[in-house]
Specification:
Blueprint lengths: L2 H6 L12 H18 L3 E2 L5 E3 H4 L5 H6 L2 E3 L6 E4 L4 H8 L9 E10 L11 E10 L4 H17 L5 E7 H9 L6 H10 L2 H9 L5 H10 L3 E2 L3 H8 L3 H19 L6 E4 L12 E7 L4 E8 L13 E7 H7 L9 E5 L7 H7 L3 E4 L5 H10 L4 E5 L6 E5 L5 E5 L1 H11 L1
């Protein structure tokens, strides 16, 4: 085995953020957290691992299977590395903050899930999210949508769409179907497989009439008008109420200038075990990226000992970075070739907000090479003959300027 390759490799799906990318991610998180703070959402940092028997109360079976597990040496109990943040917040909301309602919390944290390595899927995801606990009315869902809108606008993402569904609509449809085909039918709906539906009809697992309704269900995707078709297909009271909720929700989105961003997908089958109301998926049409998911999870909090309501979203930071049209502006870096005291030129420039990197090289070519390695904008070196400074701008074709310390400071005051 090639030892060099072994030492340089990381587990597939893990993330190494080199200088530049790590700063961009921090910049992104700070902007998003700042937006959420303006809405009253306070940042929380949850444990990286939890006891499996505790957190499993609020985690879907699929997510439990994807989680990385280990044993606590002290207690012998099985732990899981954080696969999702929302169940942790549900636990916090029903323990440490059980008496504070409404409760608004935000986060920017890594989650870890096992994914097959094909397709470049990551096992380590940096998520940014907001959770609103204790508002059971549609106004809570509308607030979450407002926070989401402001984050996307803050990042310069303008070509996004929010695909909305309601978990009870599909539950109502399934109530009208034979119980013994529940699981295969759900898989057919997930895959939008008309041929799979045809196999159920051929095997007489469903009637011709039910086949026709379900085949229409598979394509219940589109703008506001699709809700009219949804009413015709879903006659069970649970489905009818779900459509009514979506219609009222759409009217609320009009007031937030979000109605033109909305599409409906009444055949959405993901998250039925997790969600209990309005569910949404955010997509950037310009870059064809999935930005994140959200929705209501009222039943989850009861599993942690206190029935309550909750709604929120989680966004994929990497996708947000790719979709953002804003340019990340780094502070100018200055390579200073001089040994100075505590109040020397380097220190004064740092107090002005610049990044100043000390060079210990002697030759000019070595100094310039180091400057390029760290992507410096300027080099400042001492002219030992005159005692003045030599200023070199790497972005302006290595133009040189000899100046005193005062002139250097004045120059960077103007640049800043």
């Amino acid at each position: 085995m090639n030892s060099t390759r072994t030492l340089s490799s990381s587990p597939r799906g893990s993330i190494t953020l080199l200088p530049g990318l790590s700063e961009q991610r921090r910049w992104l998180a700070e902007r998003c957290l700042d937006v959420m703070k303006r809405w009253g959402y306070a940042e929380v940092v949850t444990p990286i691992f939890e006891f499996l028997d505790v957190i499993s109360r609020g985690v879907s079976d699929d997510l439990m299977e994807q989680g990385y597990k280990l044993t606590d040496r002290q207690s012998g109990r099985v732990m899981i590395i954080r696969p999702d943040v929302t169940p942790q917040i549900a636990r916090i909301a029903t323990t440490s903050y059980r008496d504070i309602r409404p409760l608004r919390l935000s986060y920017a944290l890594d989650v870890f899930r096992y994914e097959q390595s094909h397709g470049g899927r990551q096992r380590e995801l940096f998520q940014i999210g907001a959770e609103l606990i204790g508002v059971k009315t549609p106004e809570g869902d509308l607030e979450i949508m407002g926070v989401l809108r402001d984050i996307l606008e803050e990042l310069g993402i303008s070509e996004y769409r929010v695909i909305i569904s309601h978990s009870d609509y599909l539950r109502g449809i399934l109530k009208e179907c034979p119980e013994d085909i529940g699981e295969p039918l759900m898989e057919i709906i997930r895959k939008k497989s008309l041929s799979g539906l045809g196999e159920l009809l051929k095997g007489r697992a469903i009637s011709k009439r039910l086949y026709e309704r379900l085949s229409r269900l598979l394509f219940l995707f589109g703008e506001r008008g699709i809700l009219t078709e949804a009413r015709r297909i879903g006659s069970e009271p649970l489905s009818v109420r779900a459509v009514e909720v979506l219609e009222r929700f759409y009217e609320g989105l009009k007031e937030q200038d979000l109605s033109d961003r909305v599409l409906f997908d009444l055949s959405e089958a993901e998250g039925l075990q997790y969600h209990s109301g309005i569910v949404f998926h955010v997509i950037d049409f310009r870059s064809d990226l999935s930005l994140g998911y959200g929705g209501r999870y009222d039943e989850m909090l009861a599993h942690f000992g206190q029935p309550d309501t909750g709604t929120g979203f989680s966004l994929d930071a990497q996708a947000l970075l790719q979709a953002s049209t804003l340019k990340f502006n780094e502070k100018e870096k200055i390579l200073l070739c001089a040994v100075t005291g505590p109040e020397g030129l380097s220190e004064r420039l740092r107090k002005m907000g610049y990044s100043v990197v000390q060079s210990y090289e002697a030759g000019k070519s070595a100094i310039l090479r180091e400057a390029r390695n760290i992507k410096a904008d300027f080099v400042i070196k001492v002219n030992h003959r005159s005692g003045d400074y030599e200023l070199i701008s790497l972005k302006e074709g290595l133009r040189k300027k000899t100046a005193s310390e005062g002139e250097i400071l004045k120059y960077f005051e103007e640049v800043n």
